[in-house]
Amino acid sequence: MSSATTKGSTTLRKDIQALRAIAITPVVLFHLWPARISGGFVGVDVFFVISGFLITSHLLREVENNSFKISDFWVRRVRRLLPASFTVLLATALSVIALVPVQLWLQWLKEIQASILYFENWILALDAVDYLALSNEPSPVQHFWSLSVEEQFYLVWPLLIASAIFLVRKTDWKSRRSAILALLLLLTVSSFGYGVYLTQTEPAIAYFSTPVRAWEFGVGALIAFAPAIRNATAKWIASIFGLALIAYSSFVYTTALAFPGYWALIPVLGAAAVIWGSSNDGALGRVFALKPLQWLGTQSYSIYLWHWPIFTLLPYALGADLDTLGKIFALALTLLLAKVTTAFIERPFLAGGRVPRFKPATVFASLIIVSLILVGSAAVGIEQAKASIEAEKKKTDAQFNGVIDCFGAGARAPGKDACTNPKLKELFPPLASAAADSFWPEGCPTETREDVQPSFCEVGNGKSEIRIALVGDSHAKQYAAAFRDLATQNNWSVEIFVKGGCPFSKASRIREDSVLTEACNKYVDNVEKIILKKQYDLVVTSQRNGVAWIPTNNQSQEETAIAGLKATWSSLVAKGIPVLAIKDSPMPVPKVIRCLEIKTLKECSPRRSEAFLFDPQVQASKRLGSDLVRLVEFDDIYCNSSVCFPVIGNVVVYRDENHLTSTFTRTLARFLKPHIEEALVK
Q1: Do residues 309 and 415 both lie within one domain?
Q2: Which of 351, 382, 413 is the last residue of a domain?
Q3: 578: Cβ–Cβ under 8 A, 6 or more apart, which residues?
Q4: Domain that holds residue 537
Q5: What SS3 string covers 309-365?
Q6: Left (φ > 0), alpha (ψ -120 to 50) or beta: where does 132 sit?
Q7: What Å distances lie between residue 373 and 144, 307, 339, 370, CA to CA?
Q8: 456 within some domain
Q9: Where do the Acyltransferase domain residues begin and end (predicted)?
């Protein structure tokens, strides 16, 4: 984020400072009150345009004056951005260690490391590919994704300008300018086209991708080439039009949009119009010059740095979620720390400040040393987190090895199997690590959302005469640990074919785009072919309830879902392959883990009548009318006659808002076993 100066001078452009204020305001308010300003995330796009314009303006001026040096540019970026960002990252890391349960350190400190090295956007993009990582609790440095994109732009753009100058092999300004403009147009158009494509095929990755976002910087850079608007009325129209586009997208857009894609054009063009309008005179100029706007614009970088760590970590310090008063306090604290950071950290490092100018080599050497210290410190915390998680895993395994009847689902065993042991004194897993309590067999590949060919994953005895297939979406995958235990104990072979968001059904879930729907359909077809070819002794399946389905044959969504399962299961039954469907678990209260941390167990227990959503497996198993199709229900384990429990037998049931912890599914294994054995007797 460069200082807001014009192309040809060092005069402060108050319109750009005001635009910074206009950009940071919806971002911060969106993170506090997302329902009130649902498109506030577009403020980031406005910042990208501003950066593209300012950086390109500075570089063009240097090229024209024959003073362009890449090392000098990078030194200015380091002096401008890194002192404040490293300060915030250090404070955030210390706060995480002081306030946050150690089980969250592993993910969060890794992201702090990525933020120090400015590739946080790619960490989040990789998490977006991993279906199970989508439930990760947002880290306090997640907002560094946009700063990472900016730093990557600052790294590459001057190199591309230097390449254009080298290729044109001419020293006159006009030739160099034309070469840079041609390269800029090519990159901007290519990036936009790629962004539209990737937003349709992999929207979560597209959101964080630098190549996808590059065109937004490019639009700002193009304004640096555009002739200035001279007419005062035209300036006013351009600025007002741009502000209207930004306001529209801030209040009308929602996170449901396929963003960035085409939708990013509106805020991006809006920001470009405001910059091009350059309204620093007249009535609009006086509005832009208002002290509150100029103050916010000056503090915008520090505000952006501080706001998200404060919003995410303050609830841990207070021991409660932020209510309205808490949000106001968080906002005030953000503004205070931003002011202090700007005054005592940012400004001293800028040209003319109290910090002396160092040679590029000295600056880069210092940068490397500081980065290594911060990354190394985070690494120590990560190792401590790994040790803590491993210790908890051993404690949990000890409960299973001790055959404690009351552990987990055993506490709800009916009749002669009723629990007789005393209650345990602690929770497994601890609430702090419940979100990470998932299992996937070591060495098994994880299906991504675009995969159509099933990967081979086996647990148990591969040479066993009894071969079972576990198929379905992530709600089938959550039973992987239970089937690992059962396969090992009973000398079975269990092959697992699961894909997040992709139930084993001929019906199609409503998804964000048709590409993922088609990939899911092909994946299910290929799994079905494998099952029919291998002739498994049993197919076990489960799927998420309460999801939306694409209606077919003028049927309702519910009837479509039932018909899809019947069609899939019928093909197996026709070959004599039995099917065992596990009815899905009840839905917990929103943010169930957080609820358990700050509220009573009763407050976190939903009503039984409201917790069970529509599960097509129930009706499909009844309507198919085959002895080879069975349904397993654990309703009375999850719930009594009134409510459903988020903790059973001292085991935390849920790891997020719809998935079970692996620890709890392992305690269900003893109840699954008789149903499996019965189904195996054809």
Answers
A1: no
A2: 382
A3: 537, 538, 539, 572, 628, 629, 630, 679, 680, 682
A4: 405-680
A5: HHHHHHHHHHCCCCCHHHHHHHHHHHHHHHHHHHHHHHHHHCCCCCCCCCCHHHHHH
A6: alpha
A7: 19, 24, 26, 5
A8: yes
A9: 15-338
For every residue of 390-412, DSSP letters joined together read HHHHHHHHHHHHTT-TTSGGGGG
Three-state SS at 579: strand
Do 377 and 410 belong together in one domain? no
The answer to whether residues 509 and 431 belong to one domain is yes
CB neighbourhood size of 138 (10 A): 14
Residue 660 lies in a domain: yes
> CA torsion sign, 122 to 124 to 128 to 133?
positive
53: pLDDT confidence band, cut at 50, 70 and 90?
very high
User: What CATH number does the domain containing 448 carry?
Assistant: 3.40.50.1110
DSSP, res 498: E
The structure tokens 């209606």 sit at 551
Q: How many CA atoms lie within 13 A of 22 on its CB side?
A: 30
Do both 454 and 500 map to the same domain? yes
Choice between 207 and 425, residue whose per-residue pLDDT is larger:
207
pLDDT tens digits along 97-156: 888 876 677 778 889 888 988 989 998 888 764 433 445 578 899 999 999 999 999 999
Q: Would you say 638 and 586 are in contact if contact means Cβ atoms under 8 Å apart? A: yes
Query: Does residue 260 have a cis peptide bond before it, meaning omega lies within 30 degrees of 0?
Result: yes
Domain match, 361 and 457 both: no
Question: pLDDT digit string (tens) for 441-487?
Answer: 887 887 776 778 888 889 998 889 999 999 999 999 999 999 999 99
pLDDT of residue 625: 86
Residue corresponding to tokens 């205070």: 336
Distance from CA of residue 96 to its chain's centroid?
19
Q: Based on the structure, what is the number of domains in the chain?
A: 2
Nearest to 484 by CA among 455, 464, 460, 456: 460
Q: What is the pLDDT of residues 259-308, one digit of tens each?
A: 999 999 999 999 999 999 987 888 899 999 999 999 999 999 999 999 99
Contact 140, 152 (CB under 8 A): no
545 in any annotated domain: yes
Residue 607 pairs in a beta bridge with 643
- Is 156 in the same domain as 216? yes
Strands 538-542 and 493-498: unpaired
3-state SS class at 626: coil
What token pair was written down for 304? 């952006």
Phi, psi for residue 266 in degrees, rounded to 5: -65, -55
What pTM does this model have? 0.72
Does residue 219 lie in a domain region? yes
Q: Which helix (H) or strand (E) holds 274?
A: helix 265-277
The model's confidence at residue 394, banded by pLDDT at 50, 70 and 90, is low
From 314, 349, 382, the end of a domain falls on 382
Alpha carbon 279 to its chain's center: 38
Q: Left (φ > 0), alpha (ψ -120 to 50) or beta: where does 591 sit?
A: left
What distances in angstroms separate CA 318 from CA 140, 146, 200, 272, 312, one per listed residue?
A: 16, 28, 41, 41, 11
The arrangement of strands across the sheet holding 493-498 comes to 458-460, 493-498, 467-472, 538-542, 579-582, 629-632
Dihedral over alpha carbons 152, 153, 158, 163 (to 10 degrees)? 90
